[in-house]
């Protein structure tokens, strides 16, 4: 998979890709991530990427021209399956959307700033708009990092234990069950007996029940899906 991220703040975005699973997935050649500084696509002396909004009102709007230049250059080099815009009024990111995006070969992620981008960018380039939650961030970069993290870990070969993404919370509309590790007893707090029994079918049964119970207590809305 190849991910091209268009941003005015590439330095804000780089560090998540320089550690742990994301770093290893890049080193293994399972994913390529490229950052494009929108200011490199401006034609004016001050490299401005935003301007006042027509009709008046507070807040600047990101201009269409640098975005067009950057996207068009990328599209001249390869075909893209998705051009995603990070915005608080997009579709709220969930596991299903992450699963869908993880199957794409080439995607572009555009990070918004200020009041957002000129609507004509959204109308003519963007194939999908994503929000990471009902709150407003200063820009789309942190949202893009969240999206990349959740998508990349689903790419086959990225996680060492292939089954571990499948048992994540949300993967089957259930939250994950509780987990324990050694020691089996600490300060008198014991691990549930069943997990020490070695009876794999019973353990699986227990985990399913716990996942269901946790979902019912914390996120009953998931069970309606
Ligand atoms: N940009 C600003 N707020 C955002 C959000 N909640 N999700 C995605 N991009 C954003």
From TrEMBL:
GO terms for molecular function: tRNA (guanine(37)-N1)-methyltransferase activity. The keyword Cell membrane does not apply. Keywords: Cytoplasm, Methyltransferase, S-adenosyl-L-methionine, Transferase, tRNA processing. Signal peptide: none annotated. Specifically methylates guanosine-37 in various tRNAs. The gene is trmD. SUPFAM superfamilies: alpha/beta knot. S-adenosyl-L-methionine binds at residues 112, 132-137. CDD domains: TrmD-like. Residues 1-224 form the tRNA methyltransferase TRMD/TRM10-type domain. Gene3D superfamilies: 3.40.1280.10, tRNA(m1g37)methyltransferase, domain 2 (1.10.1270.20). It is an enzyme of class 2 (transferase). Its EC number is 2.1.1.228. GO terms for cellular component: cytosol. GO terms for biological process: tRNA N1-guanine methylation. Pfam families: tRNA_m1G_MT (PF01746). It comes from the Bacteria. It comes from Abyssalbus ytuae. This is tRNA (guanine-N(1)-)-methyltransferase. InterPro entries: Alpha/beta_knot_MTases, tRNA_m1G_MeTrfase_C_sf, tRNA_m1G_MeTrfase_TrmD, tRNA_m1G_MTases_N, tRNA_MeTrfase_TRMD/TRM10. It is found in: Cytoplasm. Homodimer. NCBIfam families: PRK00026.1 (NF000648), trmD (TIGR00088). HAMAP family: TrmD (MF_00605). Belongs to the RNA methyltransferase TrmD family. It catalyses: guanosine(37) in tRNA + S-adenosyl-L-methionine = N(1)-methylguanosine(37) in tRNA + S-adenosyl-L-homocysteine + H(+).
């Amino acid at each position: 998979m190849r991910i091209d991220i268009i941003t005015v703040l590439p330095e804000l975005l780089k560090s998540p890709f320089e550690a742990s699973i994301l770093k290893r997935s890049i080193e293994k050649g399972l994913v390529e991530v490229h950052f494009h500084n929108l200011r490199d696509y401006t034609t004016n002396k001050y490299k401005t990427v935003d301007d006042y909004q027509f009709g008046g009102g507070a807040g600047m709007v990101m201009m269409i021209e640098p975005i067009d230049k950057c996207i068009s250059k990328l599209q001249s080099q390869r075909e893209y399956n998705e051009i995603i815009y990070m915005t608080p009024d997009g579709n709220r990111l969930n596991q299903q959307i992450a699963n869908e995006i993880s199957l794409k070969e080439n995607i572009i992620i555009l990070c918004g700033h200020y009041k957002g981008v000129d609507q004509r960018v959204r109308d003519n380039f963007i194939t999908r708009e994503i929000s990471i939650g009902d709150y407003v961030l200063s820009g789309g970069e942190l949202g893009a990092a969240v999206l990349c993290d959740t998508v990349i870990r689903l790419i086959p070969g990225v996680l060492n234990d292939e089954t571990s993404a499948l048992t994540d919370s949300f993967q089957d509309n259930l939250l994950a069950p509780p987990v324990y590790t050694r020691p089996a007893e600490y300060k008198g707090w014991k691990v549930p007996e069943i997990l020490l029994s070695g009876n794999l079918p019973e353990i699986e049964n227990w985990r399913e029940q716990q996942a269901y119970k946790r979902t019912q207590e914390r996120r009953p809305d998931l069970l309606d899906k």
